[in-house]
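Question (not urgent): is this output format expected?
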Amino acid sequence: MKGNTILNTKVLEPYAQALLSLGQSNNLVDAFGDDARLILETVNSSDELQTFLESPFGGDDAKKAVLKQIFGGKIQPFMENFIMILVDRRRIMFLAGICQQYQVLMRQLKGIVLAEVRSAVELNDAQKEQIKQRVKTVTSANEVEIASEIDPDLIGGVVIKAGSQVIDASLKGQLRQISLRLAGLA
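Got this back:
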């Protein structure tokens, strides 16, 4: 989407870059990554919080008070100050996007690949480790992070997306392949 690219270029990217630079100069890249993950989980789990942050009618002081109450003592002081700057500059509605972009930049910096895994059932630790090893082999990454999602429509197996590569080892995918082969024979 063109609008999304403009949003990334004009707003999210510069703030995420600034946060990454701050993290690098203070040896807090990983800590900021943990903070970004916590912020994303918190904001994405509360429609009320999202609406409040996006509203132009909530005053800056009220937003700062709520954010300090939610995150105070749970995130790095630099990150807390960064959030307050976003409120002051009326960019707080982009907080989740900036945190997502920060994670993208941090992964690039550290050679980490994000593997988005959809499976029919919850994966155990051994299965996750197998997926990590497979993705490392395919992508030559230093590390692999897994973001898993349960998708009962897959029937069984997994679909792994790492960057532009997709590995479809699902029962649904295999049935689709069989169907295509049979259609070609008919």
